[in-house]
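Following the same procedure, backbone shapes were mapped to integers, yielding the entry below.
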Amino acid sequence: MLGAVIKVQSPLDRLTETQRATRTRIDRVLPSLDTGPLGWTFTLWWTPVNGVMEMMPGTFIARAFEPKDDVVAAALPAGRAVHHLMRGPFDGLPGAWKTLFQWCDREKLQPAGLNLEIYRYVDEELTQQETALYAWLVE
């Protein structure tokens, strides 16, 4: 899968603000790119280090493009991952991730520190939100 992304780092207490600002920058550039049809939005992120999270908010795209400003085309990494689906608002994400990581512990699976959230609405009125969570595993 391919996405139009911006790689950023954010203090944990500013994640929401950083993601919104980054998505605004991506959305401003996307219409000028030859990406083909646009898909859902997502955030690829790494386990925080010293209170800072490295992440790549983005939008799924059909075709690669030449970088523009700080927006680049990036492929999601290959590998084995576990999956959990959360229905509801974003404030449920910490609990959903906790559930996923606890399940990994019970199953003796080791997360690799690379994670993905895919955001989508499941109704035409855009009121019912789902977030698909993926955690890559150590091979």
In short: The radius of gyration is 15 Å. The mean pLDDT is 94.
